Amino acid sequence: MNAWQDADGHVAYVSMEVAIENDANTYAGGLGVLAGDTLRAFADADVPAVGVTPLNDAGLGEQHLEDGTQTYEAADWDPSAFFDPLDVSATVRLGDDTVTVGAWRYEVETADGSVPLVALDTDRPENPGWARSLTRSVYGVDLDRDDALAQEAVLGIGAVRVLDALDYDVHTYHLNEGHASPLVLELLRRTGIDPDAVRERCVFTTHTPVAAAHEAYDYDRLDALLDLSEALACVRERTSAEAYHTTRVALAFSRYANAVSKRHQWVTHDLFPDYREHIDAVTNGVHVPTWLGEHVADCLDAYIDGYRRAPSRLRHATLVGDDDLWAAHQAQKRDLLELVAERTGVDLDPDVLTLGFARRAVPYKRPTLLFEDTDRLRRIAAHVNGLQIVFAGKGFPGDDAGDALVSEIHDHIDALAGDVPMAYLPDYDLEIGRRMTAGADVWLNTPRRPREACGTSGMKAALNGVPHLSTLDGWWVEGHVADATGWRIGPPPFDPETQALSDDEEDAVDATALYDRLADDVLPAYYADRDRWLDIMRNCIALNGAHYHARRMVGEYCASAYASSSSA
Question: In degrees, to the nearest 5, what angle opens at C-alpha 219 toward C-alphas 192 and 101?
Fold first, then answer.
């Protein structure tokens, strides 16, 4: 089946960010990395699909760290080095201006196939200055709120019109988050305001478990921006909302909707109880050939045939020999520590247990939870053969809370020097993510429940035999097998006593649990029971890696989301 042409039409996967290559700064974080893995899995499985995203050729910005202070500078990249320009354009009416939307094409290639990614571009000489910037920076970092709304209109409306100009026969529009919801308005216009017809064409994935993070816009502002009054009136009637709520619009006009883990499904049911019966769960997965480290991959090749095309075969990782697995992991660990030394000047010891923590620097991820009691952390590290930590992560440009977290971590790095060696890798990107998830000994994750929708970094680590140490949230509620795939921090997700705690009280409970796990379980197993540790590593690959992969995820979408309602 050709990825560009299929008798039943294409799946158009529309996302505000897509991570494709390390030097193409097209993404902000986990949503974009997941989108890239999804397109690779489409290619692997020969799904007739096309991705659509803004060009984002100004990127998010390059992170610089000096004495713990986070700054950003422009990180423009050359689209012509990665994309081919397409001789096609469409127009979108925005306020008093008619904005031309051009397009570029990137071929997402894997060993088994390819799918195209179409990047929308308004940086054209015929457009007014304000509109030329709409597709340049990820999430409109430099845009005001009205222009950020226009950016979403370009994504949603532009996606339909540009794909039409390219003669795509689109069977299903997959809205990856609510940013693409203006696509619904364009489909309503095209169908003569037929909401049922639009609903048959759309599916929707939500990634946001926090009510305040779901975007809403005033209808008057949308009416002034877009020449789509009838479509807006239909949306307003169907959603019964005072504001244009991007998630509610996508839910109301999609034949299928899903959260990105079972835990996230339950949270989303609580956020949108009127759509409870409509919201399914498809737990995210990662692209195995992309995230599996070179040395562990070579090790697995000696024991398991065909696991790249059929990742469920990774369940046979229980057969991998001790010496081979340990040697492969240690090689990847040395690769990570070489990167740390090169980028930070910090020399870490390959024989010391190394925690990895790499997340967006936002308060709910609690990157400083490890430092709630630094005296106890010192005692834990001193009582065994040592403990060292590698951090990475960006705060969103202009986010004071993120800046403060990065600065606080650096303060602790300085204060604990000599007792707990640590390093902070600047400008977290795909390459750093690959090296960290492949080379850390334990992957640390500390989200405040229930704010982790999924969290795929732990899946990448598990794929490499790296156990997870995390609060039970997101995918880890499903993937955690006690003392077999890693360790939980704190109480279970629905513990009534925990739900009644304040944030500060919850931090205290979880920090104590984190220290207990390190002292009583993680460090003793690593240093004193190598056989048990290797069993845990094998289980991570066999139980987590064999299931939490993008090929399984895309298979679920094909079975549940992309089949039309008449054939479901």
Answer: 65
pLDDT in tens, 442-468: 999 999 999 999 999 999 999 999 999
| Cα distance between residue 280 and residue 274, in whole Å | 14
Q: How many C-beta atoms lie closer than 10 Å to residue 419's C-beta?
A: 16
Cβ proximity of 460 and 286 under 8 Å: yes
Q: Are 248 and 175 in contact (CB under 8 A)?
A: no
Q: Are 201 and 186 in contact (CB under 8 A)?
A: no
Amino acid type, 282? V
Q: Are residues 521 and 484 in contact, defined by beta-carbon separation less than 8 angstroms?
A: no
Task: Give the integer Cα–Cα distance in Å for 375 and 313.
Answer: 45
What is the per-residue pLDDT across 471-525, written as a single tens digit (0 to 9) for each?
999 999 999 999 999 999 999 887 787 778 899 999 999 999 999 999 999 999 9
Q: What are the backbone dihedrals phi and psi of residue 56, each rounded to the nearest 5 degrees, phi first?
A: 55, 45
Q: Using CA atoms, how far apart are residues 302 and 328, in angstroms rounded to an integer?
A: 12
Place of tokens 């308004």: 122
> Per-residue pLDDT tens for 148-185?
899 999 999 999 999 999 999 999 999 999 999 999 99
422-425 and 387-392: which strand pairing?
parallel
- Say what the pTM is: 0.96
Paired tokens of 171 = 């069977």
pLDDT tens track for 84-93: 999 999 999 9
Contact 88, 166 (CB under 8 A): yes
Q: 551 and 311 in contact (C-beta within 8 Å)?
A: yes
Q: Name the residue type at position 355.
A: L
Query: Do residues 280 and 261 touch, judged by C-beta distance below 8 A?
Result: no
358-376: buried (b, 16+ CB within 10 Å) or exposed (e) per residue? bbbbbebbbbbbbbbeeeb
Return the exposure string of 278-289: e unless at least 16 CB atoms fall within 10 Å of the residue's CB, then b.
bbbbbbbbbbbb
Distances in Å between the alpha carbon of 478 and those of 240, 260, 299, 409?
A: 35, 12, 27, 30
d(CA 423, CA 345): 9
Read off the pLDDT of residues 55-80 as tens digits, 9 standing for 90 and up: 999 888 889 999 889 888 888 899 99
What single-letter DSSP state applies at residue 448?
A: P
Please classify residue 402 by burial: count the beta carbons closer than 10 Å to its beta carbon, then call 0-12 exposed, 13-18 middle and 19+ buried.
buried
- DSSP per residue over 361-400, as a string? --GGG-TTGGGTTHHHHHHHHHHSS-EEEEEE--PPTT-H
Ramachandran region, residue 56 (left: φ > 0; alpha: ψ -120 to 50; beta: rest): left
Which uninterrupted H or E stretch holds 24?
none
Q: Quote the distance between the C-alpha of residue 200 and its chain's center.
A: 27
Q: Supply the DSSP symbol for 360.
A: -
Handedness of CA 554, 29, 110, 343 (dihedral sign): negative
- By residue count, the chain amounts to 568
The pLDDT of residue 567? 36
211-216, long-range: CB < 8 A, 24+ apart: 211/271, 214/178, 214/245, 214/246, 214/247, 214/271, 215/178, 215/179, 215/245, 215/246, 215/247, 216/241, 216/243, 216/244, 216/245, 216/246
